[in-house]
Amino acid sequence: MKFTDFSLADPVMEGIDAMGYINPSPVQEAAIPIILEGNDLIACAQTGTGKTAAFLLPLIHRLLTDSDQEGLIQALIIAPTRELAIQIDQQLQGFAYFANTSSIAVYGGGTGAGFDQEKKALQHGAQVIVATPGRLISHLNLGYVDFSGLKYLVLDEADRMLDMGFMPDIIRILNALPVKRQTLLFSATMPDGIRKLTERMLVNPRQVNLSVSKPAENVLQAAYLVFENQKIALIESLLDGKDLPLVLIFASTKAGVKEVEAILKRKKFNVSAIHSDLEQDQRTAVMNRFRARDLQILVATDIVARGIDVDDISLVINYNVPGDAEDYVHRVGRTARAERSGVALTFVSEMEFGKFKRIEQFLGGPVRKLLLPQHLGDGPTIESYDTQRSHHRAFYGKKRGPSGNKRKRPGGHQKGKNPGKNQ
């Protein structure tokens, strides 16, 4: 199938050509006709499958062909992070370059001048608003945002917004929008909270489900079983002297990101990090360097890195095992984008064996385990973890005392009791 088969407006096709798109991805092939028909849509597809273009292209087309409300906001796209909002707006500008579609990204962390610019766009009706929930609520609370002409609502990365606690903000925003509109919901996963939200905000939605919650097949996944003090040395061994133009390292906390960045800098690697302590212009500068290949290694947390959209990341390293399988899929999906291949390596310490085993169960099978480089020595073994776990279960309640009651936990407190209560 070709993009020409969608019969999109000429300015949209010119934008597609200028952006270098040739054939639609599966999610684009399935979603675009549904959106063009005016139906509400629930699209569930793995990270890196082209979801952004799947809603932007038909949205621009409909704005060109159906628009009759000059000076009013006609489309609202909500994204969980400022990085993703910026990325969507940048893609929108590329696809709509020949369509003369006005847009603005509305997100927190900027300057007072940036807030004033957002206010002006919201008051005078930029056609498309791409916003994070919290920042949009700030504008709504000031009373000048007019959504009376809104026709299209898009929620991108809806599962991430739920994880980040944005549900009350989303409900507040929904209450400010016209009931009659076309609503599109895109998500990498479909937890129960999202399903309940769809019942409230969509009308007879069509559904697209593609490879839900599974990493792309062209990602080579593997894991190292390591002690915590071996992780930095393992990164050094993996990267030193290797031709790896773009490497993305995920740490689970902001403190962890800073620590990994500092250690790698001391070892003379070309590395930088993005985290919430940086100003937005600093974070944007780091991302621009990474996209331009002026920076080899980027260290980030899950939330800050949600908007990273770089096609040729060759290696993703999970310095810490993510908290759940969905975050693992998100991290792994940063490589092997746009039908390229990539490698994703996870460092699994003794304390993380349980989390990683649950991820493997979610994926439907074990992830290949690699041997540590010889100079690093031996790491922990699965057998040692299983032994520790069986001893733990035996101590904490599997064995019973003579009276038939479970043994007490250390300190004399029963499991489930709060030792600090009433003290």
Task: Explain how this protein is built.
The protein starts with 9 loop residues before the first helix and ends in a 25-residue tail after the last helix. It has 2 domains: 3-210, Rossmann fold (3-Layer(aba) Sandwich); 219-376, P-loop containing nucleotide triphosphate hydrolases (Rossmann fold). The strands form 2 sheets. The chain has a 7-stranded parallel sheet, sandwiched between helices. Helix content is 40%, strand content 15%. The radius of gyration is 24 Å and the shape is globular. It is of the alpha/beta class. It has 15 helices and 14 strands.
CATH superfamily of the largest domain: P-loop containing nucleotide triphosphate hydrolases
What overall form do the CA principal axes indicate?
A: globular
Oligomer: single chain
CATH topology-level name of the largest domain: Rossmann fold
CATH architecture of the largest domain: 3-Layer(aba) Sandwich
Topology order in helix (H) and strand (E) letters:
HHEHEHEHEHEHHEHEEHEHEHEEHEHEH
Number of continuous helical runs: 15
